[in-house]
Amino acid sequence: MRLGWEDEIPSVGWGDLHALGFDEAGLKPHPAHALLALARALGLSLSEAGAWTQQVLAAARPARLWPQGALYLAVVEDTSPGVRAVQAAREQLEAVYAEPVSVHTLGLTRSPVKTHALAQTGARVLTHWAQVARALQAWGCP
Length: 142
Description:
This protein is an alpha/beta fold. The protein is 43% helix and 18% strand. It is built from five helices and five strands; from the N terminus they run E-E-H-H-E-H-E-H-E-H. The strands form two sheets. The protein has a three-stranded parallel beta sheet with strand order 3-4-5. Strands 1-2 form a two-stranded antiparallel ribbon.
């Protein structure tokens, strides 16, 4: 169920881009839709929205450098539909803004059934948040 304001009010948290941009089912935000909502709310391109967000975050932590000028998103999902939604959102962002978007998607589960389903999406599947933290650090995330 959409409430009507989710595409208009951006917010920033966790040092990453988050906003009230919801997935197709209207259940939860994820970073790719969040960035689209943020850019739309600010009337900026993806690069401009990313630069604006990094300026806002600079006081709290060092700015993240995006490789080769591309927008960089690291997404952790626990369902294969969630991973596919992120992949579709990346394609939508690139089509709308004609700017590169680099997405690293991690699956997080201990369930053998979910592990198999997540692996079929191409996501790297991990079982503990500590593994996620190490993977993000290896990719250069702060």
